[in-house]
Amino acid sequence: MATITKTKFNTYRVQIRRSGLPPIYQSFKTKEQALTWVRKTEYELDIGTHLSKEDSERITFAELATRYVNQVSPKKKGHKQEVYRFDFKFFCETNSTHLMLLFYLNYEAKKYLLHPGRFTQQDKAIVYIVRPTQLGGLVRFNVFLDNQEDSSEMGYTRAGQYIYFNLTPGEHKIYSKAENWAESLVTVKPGDVVFLQQEPSMGIIMARNTMFKLDDHEGKYHVKTLTLGTIIKSDK
User: Fold this and answer.
1) For 157, which of 118, 131, 178, 191 could close a Cys bridge (C-beta 3.0–4.6 Å)?
2) Tally of CB atoms within 10 A around 164
3) Kind of pairing between the strands at 161-167 and 227-228
4) Which fold has domain 125-231?
5) Average confidence (pLDDT) over 22-51
6) Which residues have a Cβ under 8 Å from the Cβ of 219 and sit 6 or more positions away?
7) In 3D, which of 58, 28, 26 has the Cα closest to residue 41?
């Protein structure tokens, strides 16, 4: 769980606690920077790629790549073929942990199918709303399509859940209601798949939220690991 505290110096101090792990601390000049770091760090903790400051200073990229080949890849079907295709020299010379993470996510995304059969209408797109963060877990985040009228509510999430619904081609505004209203503008064409994340933060009475777009790899990962929330309707 992440806690963000404003200091007397007008900076933001973040603390992340996970069972069985030492607390992780970091300070930032703005709250936006703090929230971005929290999302990235909690995501890395979820998939097991996070390195402590001490580890990141001493571990080499070659060691990371070796860890993947020896510990992660053997648990997958087609392990031998993957290792054969794995351009080990390229990854070691690139010296980029971000690239290694993208490689892992790309592999996971390719083998995971997003609920076959949900595209019942080929002329539409689909949007997944994911909520992986545990803060404000019991508070509903209600999702609305194109306006904030009750008739436009598509469903709601709690912590660790996702929902999905169809979109007609064109521009749409998607709203997420908590203590405040968050919104995201998307433009889609037939067959598109869009991933949006609801991100909670501390509010006065209940949790507040923001919403932002995810890339396909991270979006698929969350849909794969979260549970289905409450869908009121899948079309409007």
Assistant:
1) 131
2) 23
3) parallel
4) Immunoglobulin-like (2.60.40)
5) 82
6) 128, 130, 193, 195, 197
7) 26
| Residue predicted with more confidence, 39 or 128 | 128
**Token reading at 40:** 């990235």
pLDDT at 172: 97
- 194 with 186: CB under 8 angstroms? yes
Rounded to whole angstroms, the Cα distance separating 197 from 35 reads 13
In the predicted structure, residue 168 carries a pLDDT above the cut 90: yes
Q: What angle do CA 26, 103, 99 make, to 5 degrees?
A: 50
Q: Tell me if 34 sits within 8 A of 51, measured CB to CB.
A: no
Higher-confidence position of 141 and 49: 141
Cβ(184)–Cβ(212) below 8 Å: yes
Decide: helix, strand or coil at residue 124: coil
Put residue 38 in one of left, alpha, beta given phi > 0 → left and psi -120 to 50 → alpha.
Answer: alpha
- Strands 141-145 and 12-16 come out as unpaired
Cross-strand bridge partners of residue 12: 6, 28
